[in-house]
Amino acid sequence: MTQPILDQEKCTACGLCVEVCGLDVIVRNGNGCPTIDRAAYCHTCGHCVAICPQNALSIQGVPGDQFAPVHTPAISPLDMETFLLTKRSCREFKERPVEKSVLENLITVARMAPTSINCQERAFIVVTDAAKIAELREALTQHIRSLLKMVKLAASKPAALFLSPESQEHMRHLQADFEIALRHTGGGDDYIFHNAPCLIFFTGITMDPSGRDHALGAQHYLMLYAETLGLGTCINGYAQSAPKILAKHLNIPKAHTIYGAIMLGYRKHTYRKRVYRKPASVVYYE
Hints:
Layout (H helix, E strand, L loop, with lengths): L3 E3 L9 H5 L5 E2 L7 E2 L10 H5 L5 E3 L17 H9 L14 H11 L11 E6 L2 H26 L9 H22 L11 E8 L5 H18 L2 E5 L1 H4 L2 H5 L8 E11 L20
Antiparallel strand pairs: 1-4, 2-3, 5-6, 6-8, 7-8
């Protein structure tokens, strides 16, 4: 079992490691150095190593260079707010491939997104091969064509007896989107992936109740970081709605499901204004 290792000669008994350990692996020992409970389960989150000011802790089996010191930049609330409020989904890309080193850098950051009990159980599938992208496009086009029949039924007047007005309105939006997608695709346009040079799929364990969260957490880490590199991203709902279809065309890790899918490439345009969003629906208990 992986466990922390405490160097008592360096330890000053400050107790910070005890405070951040969420599983009682590191416990207080009076006023002396903490004690490692060898029977406790440690999920190797690394909080104890990261917070120790004396470098007195390490993790069994984990190289020390994985805990390199970090410089914390002073990002102002205004800068962060502006960054988040002005991020736009990108569907227009330059005819420029995304370099392999950039993709590796993106995944290095995305893999740091949190997971429950630090399981880190997710995978990334990166597709830049034009033939494979075309194969996936055709598969999703057929999927949309079959879904459209059901969506039209749900958007019809008879369905109003069974669906709420909000649900019917959503079905009408889907119908319009699917019809536009098929019209453009039939005309030779790539309305499915918008000529993106790269697709990235995010998977999580199918049987894990948090599997979807693990995949989507990494997806959003990657998308936000991509913005800082001049890259544009867009979530691909067609792909996210068809994990079983994609699994027939991609090498999905065993026991995993695709939960996230994005298009990625260098942005062709720059937006100069923020856009409208509906007021937030919020419930406060005060």
